Structure formats: C-alpha cells, structure tokens
Amino acid sequence: MFDKIGKSQTLSQEIVASIEQAIRDKKFHAGDQLPTEKELGEMFGVSRTAIREALQMLSAQGLITVQKGKGSFINDYSTAQVTKPMSLFLELNFDTDFIFHVIRIRKMIEPEVARDAAKNRTSEDISIIKSIIAKMDSPDYNTVQQMAELDKEFHLAIARASKNPIIPIIVQPIFELMPKIKPIILSQVDVAKSDAGIYHHKIYDMIKKQDSTGAFEMMTKHLQIAEEHVNILKKML
User: Fold this and answer.
1) Does residue 79 surpass a pLDDT of 80?
2) Considering only CA atoms, which of 166, 171, 189 is closest in space to residue 105?
3) pLDDT value of residue 87
4) For 47-69, how does the pLDDT look when each residue is reduced to its tens digit (9 = 90+)?
C-alpha cells in the first residue's frame, strides 16, 4: 500500500503525508484500522520509532485515534476540526483593524446567505431564529456579552438555514469573533444596540415569509449600518 521512502530529517513527516494522501484517496474510511506499527515500518522501510512519531502527528491533527493495545483507527473528520484552527488563527491575530476586515467580508457573504435562508429554511429553522430573537428582546439577556453571544447565534442560525453545508464552515470562525467585537462596538457606539435589534427583526420577518429579495436587502442594510458603526469606532480610537 505504501512505498519505501529514503532517509530524511523529516522522515515522520513524509510518512504522515503518505497516510494523509491515502485517506484523501479513500483507501481508508472512518473507523478503518491502520496496519500495525510493524507492518507500516515494513511498508515504508523505516524504524518503528519513525512510525510512532508519525502516528502521534496524525493523532494530534485529529485524523486518527491511537488506542493502546488495539491499534490506530481513522477518525470521522468533523467540521469542528476544520473551524477550530481558523478560529484560533483569527483570535490570535485579532486587533482593532480586524473589526473592519470582518465587517467587509461579512458584507460580501451574508446577504446571499440570507437570500438562500429565505428560500430553503424549514419550520424548525424559523423556530430557532425566533427563540434567539425572543432572548434578544428579553430583559434577562441584557449584558453586552450576552448580546454578543446571541448575535453570533442569530447569524449562525441563518447560515445553517441556507442549507448549504459549506456556509457554516466558512462563516463560523468569523462569527466566533463576535463576542470580542460586539462589546467594543456596543460600549463605544450608542446607537448600535437599537439599530441591530431593528434589523434582526426585519431579517427574521423576511426569512419567515420566504422573501429572498427582502432578506438579501435587509441583511445588506444591516451590515451597512454595522460598517458605519465600525467607522465611528475607528475615528474614536
């Protein structure tokens, strides 16, 4: 299954690359067991030490699970394994300039997502979005942090309602920054809270009515206003 490889300072990395490619080529599927360390060593023509290092790397990447006494098994690769590294990257590189970049990318993506959500939403999606709106309106959810979390949930629920499985994967790392961004905006820009609440209701209404053009337009306006708030913030900093 695997070809022998030559000596190298990155021997284990070459083994990792070969096994990764085998997984991509569907030679292994979720739940499949890899050959034993001894068998892999013979296939690659390397020591068991190099194999163990490679398996540790694959385990750290979330591609396999090493079960002591049983062997190594291919994991069912989940969306969390995709979104978490991106979320970490964005969080570690977050600064005030990032707020402007985030709103710009949201303007490019979210109006079309809202359009698709209006076309494809189910009654369950409507119930979820409605419950988020109710919390936003409730006096029990009045802290800046609570509002930021609900804002994230609202926009992520719309992304899921689009029924395009790639959209939540793309936008979730961006939305994970909302609990960082929203408190900054709300604490500095007085009109931000009321403006957001008005357009959350308008967007919800359009999605509920399955008015795809209206949902696109309301999301566009919502994000244009959010960009205005960001510009106000930039002048204050």
Assistant:
1) no
2) 171
3) 87
4) 999 999 999 999 988 889 999 88
Query: In this structure, are residues 80 and 168 in contact, taking their beta carbons and an 8 Å threshold?
Result: no
Q: Give the pLDDT score at 94.
A: 87
CATH code: domain of residue 215: 1.20.120.530
Q: Is 138 inside a domain boundary?
A: yes
Residues 70, 147 share a domain: no
Q: Are residues 208 and 108 in the same domain?
A: yes
User: Residue 176 in contact with residue 170, Cβ under 8 Å?
Assistant: no
DSSP 35: P
Q: Residues 6 or more apart from 45 whose CB is under 8 A from it?
A: 4, 5
CATH of the domain at 65: 1.10.10.10
pLDDT at site 57: 92
pTM for this prediction: 0.75
Residue 194 and residue 162 share a domain: yes
Indicate whether 84 and 68 sit together in one domain: no
Bridge partners of 206, per DSSP, are: none
The string of DSSP codes covering 112-149 is: HHHHHHHHH--HHHHHHHHHHHHHHHSTTS-SHHHHHH
- Say what the pLDDT of residue 68 is: 87
